[in-house]
Amino acid sequence: MKKSLICLLIFVFILFLFPTINAATINANSCSLEDVQKAIDAAEPGDVVRVPAGNCVWGTGRRTIDSGFYVYPSLAINKSLALIGEGINKTNITCTHNQSAIIYKPANFSANDPFRISGFTFDFDDQCTGIRLSYSYTDLTIQTKIRIDHNHFKDSASQALTINGYRGVADHNIFTGTDYPIRFASGDDHDWWQNWEGIVFGKADNNFYFEDNIIEAYDAMVDCQYGNRYAFRYNTIRALGPASYPLMDMHGDVGTESGGCAYRSCFGSEIYGNHISLNSGYADFRGGKHAIFYNYISKTGNFWGLRDSEGVSLGWEACDCVYCDTDNPQPQHISDSYSWNNRGSSLTGPISNFYSRGFADCVEKCGYIVNENDEFFNFNPSFDGTSGVGCDTLSERPGTCTFGVGYWATAQSCSDLTGFVGANHTNIISGTLYKCTSPNTWTVYYTPYIYPHPLSVAPSGTNICDEGKIISECWCEGLKSVGYCYNGYYSTEEGERIIPPPAEEEQPSLGGVATLQDMLNSYQRYKRNEVSLLYFLDKLRSWIIFR
Fold first, then answer.
1. Tell me, what's the pLDDT at 135?
2. CB of 81 within 8 A of CB of 40?
3. I need a labelling partner for 503 at 20 to 30 A (CA). Which of 7, 9, 70, 523 fits?
């Protein structure tokens, strides 16, 4: 009887603590829209849907969703899953209708489950509008586990990727042939500003990152409005213009002609380690807080267009309290923004900084005004602690400082960007931004978020090899006995560095008396892939027997 009870308790415990242990792989019969949709409909949350190699057209026509309700044939996904193709130029989708190729909107926002799209070439044929990550009107839970990676997006009619309120990463993608490839376009800006945390530079789950991508744009590369935010790091970005908008755009507080609220400002951005080739304006921000550093801005062709500059222009659209008020402690106008060691013309060239297009005097209406060395701070190579942003080793930081100024403490170069920029960068930018929070008091303000983004690196023990026994990240044992590893991903192609087989970690011994804390600790260690499932189950059994 006691043994039966133990087995029952173990079964129930596993059922509740390991709901994804039986995650399945669903194989679509082909890459056709119908077959992929059938595979998605058959999948359970957490499953992997694999789409085979092939060339498929997702064309015009309609299909029934509910009785009497029809939509154009977007691929509709409302659950957590990984949609995996066979790779760029292998699983090729041409979309010829005039709606989004894929719409993702989870039925259960409160679960905040993972979602991923990887391994496709999407040709939108100048008709489709790409992939849309849609927000909820009723649930404010932020989706923080989104990954879009290793895809080629071509020729969208508007955007290749539209992101509304999500957090995560887009990495190792290629964007070509689109005027305006990325947009943080819409959202519940009132509730987001009232309830969501503002920009906290470098904090986990606080932004959506684009990293290690190659991005071409014929007009604006990215726009932001309605309480969104973005981060771009280590990308190769080419403006192919001529453009009518700056490459990077960010709205502030925007009103209507009748004096109402159109939409609230974006929260802000982090932009670093990018190689940006321009033939039109670089960036224009009218709201939010920004950390912009170690970018190389090179000119190509005839440089012209809106707001011609290698620097980032700062402006305004309305005083914060006039149209779209908010109780969020972060203001909507430009604030707490820092620029340092951005270079134009060459990797050691002239400094590229913020410059002002002029700000309204909002003192009378809303109690503030935007000024340099008040709301934004520029790189100053002769920094002495009184104005701007300095850059050098920590030991060289001035002992005295004026409120608000910044200092980037680093062992790396503050004048040469070689190896630090673009999708093929060889160095990772490392340092800490200190802010003077009161006279002569330096406080840690910002450290860049983990790179590569944690969502883009397969954890130890994950089956990234498809065959054989997994020992650790990027090493397989069995049919694929030699692995090639690039940023945590297995490849059979030569040219990537080989990861030598690590020794298997010795597992703690089994048996003995286990307390409740022992059992819980063993579960946490199992979740971190430090011990085997057998070890955890042994502690669970021992706790049940001896408690």
1. 92
2. yes
3. 523
Looking at per-residue confidence, does 464 or 118 come out higher?
A: 118
Alpha-helical (H) ranges within 182-320 are 189-195
Whether 216 shows a pLDDT value over 80: the answer reads yes
Q: Specify the pTM.
A: 0.81
- pLDDT at residue 112 tops 90: yes
CB 514 within 8 A of CB 503: no
Residue 465 tokens, joined: 């090899």
The C-alpha atoms of residue 224 and residue 289 are separated, in whole angstroms, by 13
Q: Quick one: CA dihedral 348, 349, 350, 352, positive or negative?
A: negative
Q: What is the pLDDT of residue 419?
A: 96
| Helix, strand, coil content of the chain in percent (nearest 5) | 15, 30, 55
Mean pLDDT confidence for 204-217? 96
Residue 388 tokens read as 């701007």
* Helix, coil or strand: residue 80: coil
Q: How many CB atoms lie within 10 A of CB 276?
A: 28
Closest CA to 336 of 272, 404, 384, 402: 404
Report helix, strand or coil for 190. helix
Nearest to 381 by CA among 372, 391, 373, 371: 391
CA distance linking residue 3 with residue 471, whole number of Å: 33
Residues whose CB falls within 8 Å of the CB of residue 152, separated by 6 or more in sequence, listed in order: 88, 89, 120, 121, 122, 173, 174, 176
Place of tokens 């008091």: 441
Measured distance CA(475)–CA(483) in Å, rounded: 6
Over 476-527, what HEC string results?
Answer: EECCCCCCEEECCEEECCECECECCCCCCCCCCCCCCCCCHHHHHHHHHHHH
Structure-block tokens of residue 504: 């298997």
Please report, for residues 197, 275, 294, 331, 417, the alpha-carbon distance to residue 343 in angstroms, rounded to integers and kept in the order given: 31, 10, 7, 29, 8
Residues 6+ apart with CB under 8 A from 34: none
**CB contact at 8 A, 458 and 473:** yes
